[in-house]
Amino acid sequence: MKYRTLYICTALLGFGLVVSCTPIVEEMTEVEKRAADPRNKTHMVGDKASGYVYMTSQTRDMQDDDIANPAFTWIDLAEEKWSKVEGKAGKSCASCHQDVNKAMKGVANKYPQYDPESKKLIALQVKINRERTKRMGAKPWKWESDQMLGMAALVKLQSRGMPVNVKIDGPAKPFFEKGKEFYNQRRGLLDMACANCHVDNAGNMARSNVLSQGMINGFPVYRLKWQKPGSVHRRFIGCNKQVRATPYKRGSEEYTNLELFLMWRASGLNWETPAVRN
Amino acid sequence: MARKPRVKVPSSAKKGDVIQIKTLAPHKMETGQRKNKKGKKIPRFIINKLEVTFNGKPLVTADLHPAISANPYFAFFNRVTESGSFKFVWTDDKGKSITTSKSIKVA
Description:
The complex is a heterodimer of chains A (278) and B (107). With 278 residues, chain A is mainly alpha-helical. Chain A has helices spanning 2-20, 25-36, 57-64, 71-82, 93-97, 100-103, 124-135, 146-157, 173-184, 194-198, 232-242, 253-265; strands at 44-45, 48-49, 113-115, 120-122, 205-206, 209-210, 221-223, 228-230, 276-277.
């Protein structure tokens, strides 16, 4: 019990400082320096900046080299899976879609998507599992499994360099609004909204991290802390826990709506899946 | 299906060229310092050796230690004088190795 109290206090102190103090001047110039770096040019648009520009040059080096970026070992695995026959129908993804490069180009921008069947939004992972269960008669993959992370990354990789551009009108509109509300709602013991960190304090320090704008355009990202790729819903869980709020489940309605809102927030930034983050 | 190593070697080069070789091996590189949820130490389990040969002759040998991150990346340069095949072997603490090869045409 003692341990827990201590933990919460440091957290409060850490984040309390961020919220109430003026930013440390030296840290700001460091961030500004990063923003002025020509390498960051394709990772910024208007006042929007990808998480890339907040990373150290070593971390950016990893992302910029498809051999040094370990996420590609998961993508290689997914490429094998793409043409591997599985399930009762005796089919692989390639049986119907042929070349993944052509078939999945631009698909990153289509999800989360309104699904008339469930009358809710579905994330790309849900669509991939439907393809497996309904069209192939194969077993679904777990959200954070190597197979699903790899396939989601392989699909989104085909949109790398294209600007994020998602549909939020029509039947998706009410879900978008819910996602926006979630984003701006304070929660948890620290009573903080996503926006308090990623809008109000982007560029400032939170403990040892520079807060980014919390952009979604690199997911699934290879995170050095995780030593593996992770979904954006995993990131949401982490960010909810940081403010001592009870997280939702991966694939939940709440997180899928939030994902759509974050896609809209990132509009115009280029897709960089699979990104590398610290 | 397991993840496989990634290696980049140019497919061709001129005699005497200095080429860059890049490698990355999938491995969790468990340091032996961490504890599980019950407080028990997770045993060390890392790749401890990378050996690269060219046409059977040793080119690079590296001993790896626990402070190296998961999915270790190595890059190095080599002056090539003949066509042939690079062989890469990573060996872990359980004595298991992963191997891959890449050939190059030198003219």
